[in-house]
Design goal:
Layout: E1 6-7, H1 18-23, H2 27-37, E2 39-42, H3 48-55, E3 64-69, H4 70-73, E4 76-77, E5 79-83, E6 88-89, H5 91-112, H6 123-132, E7 141-145, E8 150-154, E9 165-170, E10 178-180, E11 183-188, E12 195-199, E13 206-210, E14 213-218, E15 221-231, E16 234-237, E17 239-244
Length: 250
């Protein structure tokens, strides 16, 4: 179902719609990266002004449905807040615009892994599937780290229905706003040691990555690998990230 939007950015800075900015990327190349490495970078998905405006929402409790202190749950050290509906622009627009591009990859992955589930072509239809299953709480979130904070390796699964790819956007500038805090993705292959991918991001860059499983082509066909993601220790400054998860939660 479509959700209403609330602007947080001066409309003049939103001259390029979410659909138009998503369409500018070479999706054939991005899909190849997702297939090869389990992740793909979308440079400058948000402007610096948009990044600062979204990060600036963090103290405003009226924008969020819950506040998580990671250490209380063994998730690491740091904190994050889940947005409530309506999501702020440009996040609402990007969630809608990114989904159809990634659904193509998700459906191909499920076919290769021998899974029956297929994802609809538009995000509204997928959200309706989540809501029919009792998953109605929005999952996009805003994370904040200070020196010593980190995020343990994890998977963002919030119910029986889960979209297999999500997007994280770095809102702070490495080397200026913070040091450390690298995004890392680990991949566990059968009977092999885990592979680590450290993803270099600048302010406004997004990374699309596998949430749980993805297929890898071997000598005897495709096999399934398990992925987790996390953030290394922040050494100085403050780091903000926004996460766009496409399924809703129970």
């Amino acid at each position: 179902m479509n959700q209403p939007r609330t602007n947080i950015i001066d409309p003049a800075s939103m001259a390029v719609s979410a659909e138009d900015r998503v369409a500018t990327y070479d999706w054939a190349a991005l899909n190849t990266d997702l297939d090869s490495f389990g992740c793909a970078i979308l440079p400058k998905l948000l402007t610096a002004d948009e990044c600062r405006a979204i990060a600036g929402l963090y103290p405003d409790e009226t924008r969020f449905r819950s506040h998580i202190i990671m250490a209380r749950h063994g998730f690491g050290k740091g904190e994050y807040r889940y947005f409530k509906y309506p999501l702020p622009d440009p996040l609402a627009g990007l969630r809608t615009a990114l989904y159809p591009r990634l659904a193509v990859v998700a459906n191909e992955w499920n076919e290769r892994m021998g899974l029956d589930e297929r994802f609809p072509g538009d995000h509204a239809s997928f959200l309706q599937r989540c809501h029919d299953a009792g998953q109605t709480r929005p999952t996009p979130l805003l994370l904040q780290y200070v020196p010593g904070d980190f995020n343990c390796l994890h998977q963002d699964l919030y119910g029986d229905i889960a979209f297999p790819i999500q997007v994280a956007i770095l809102l702070s500038e490495p080397g200026r706003d913070f040091t450390g805090g690298e995004f890392a993705l680990t991949e566990q292959r059968p009977r092999m040691q885990s592979r680590v991918e450290v993803v270099p991001l600048r302010q406004g860059d997004a990374v699309a990555f596998a949430v749980h499983n993805r297929p890898v082509k071997g000598t005897k066909g495709n096999y399934r690998v398990n992925l987790r993601h996390g953030v290394s220790r922040v050494r100085s400054g403050m780091r903000h990230t926004v996460g766009i998860i496409f399924h809703d939660a129970r």
